Amino acid sequence: MKKLITAVVSLGLIVGAASATDVDADRKAFVGHFKSIKPNVDFADYTNGVYAFDEGSREQFEEILDGIPPYEEALEKGGAEFEKFGLAKCDALKDPAAARLAHPYYDEKAGTVVTLEGTIQKCYNEQTGKKMGTMKGKIARISSWISDQAAGEKINVKVESEGAKAAYEEGKAFFYAKRGQFNMSCADCHVYNAGKKARADILSPALGHTTHVPMYRAKWAGLGTLHRRYGGCLKNMRAKPIKAQKEVYRNMEFYHQAMSNGLEITDARYRK
What is the C-alpha separation between 94 and 83, in angstroms, rounded? Predict the structure, then answer.
């Protein structure tokens, strides 16, 4: 119990007032934790997720990437859909690489966190008059294609205003909060037990999670957004999933992405 309390404090779980928020200190503690449990893994390698931890899985991962990745066709379709639906006509998406780097961000006027998928949905609605899904299909294909345009660039989420800090703190609190029949948090699997096995699977590190989203999961046999992954995790905890793009998920994404500041966005999005 003493070790757990020490880890929680060092990772900044004790959430205070927004004015006391120190994102850089949180991130340094977050990165430091992973360095302490996996001292031989380079910071930059966390873009590869669990494949940075396990050599056998890494070899399979690289073989898949060296061939024809199973998401390649979907990405090409996402690029075609970006053009077909006129998404470049929206100011927020006219430069796809810049759009990926700018999200998520806190919209001061609206008083809320805006995600890349939220911007895509809004633009799609403006251009077509139709609604777009939130977790897979067009939204995942287009978001993946946009993200690919920024591959190699580094994540740099900014949390500056009081409103942004409050959203960040709410997202952080949700990330560490226990829930569901198993009384678990996101951090239990992906921070404290990252690299350990859960049944036959190795638990992936939360550091770097957002560098390769949307992701292609063999389990899904397709692409899915980060919020789809959040929902799956809640189900694994035996907790009720929250609808994608709801405020609580957007706030958690804001925190989650900020913890990977300094890591490169990657187009190697295959995961088991």
Answer: 11
Alpha-carbon Rg of the chain, whole angstroms?
18
Is 123 catalytic? The answer is no
CATH of domain 2-68+159-271: 1.10.760.10
Distance CA 271, CA 215 (A): 7
- What confidence tens digit (pLDDT) does each residue in 2-38 have? 444 445 545 655 555 566 899 999 999 999 999 999 9
Cβ-proximal residues to 211 (8 Å cutoff; 6+ apart), any chain? 46, 47, 155, 260, 263, 264, 265, 266
**DSSP string computed for 181-207:** TTTB-HHIIIIITTTSEETTEEPPPST
Length of the chain: 272
* Helical ranges in 68-215 per DSSP H: 72-84, 96-102, 116-128, 138-148, 162-176, 186-187
Q: Helices H, strands E: what count in the chain?
A: 11, 7
Catalytic one of 90, 123, 189, 233: 233
Cβ atoms 30, 251 nearer than 8 A: no
Residue range(s) of every CATH 1.10.760.10 domain in the chain: 2-68+159-271
State pLDDT tens for residues 206-236.
999 999 999 999 999 999 999 999 999 999 9
The CATH number of 72-148, from 3.30.565, 2.60.40, 1.10.760, 2.20.25, is 1.10.760
pTM of the model: 0.93
252 vs 270: CA distance, rounded Å: 23
CB-CB contact of 26 with 12 (8 Å): yes
Residues 175 and 27: their CA atoms lie apart, in Å, by 14
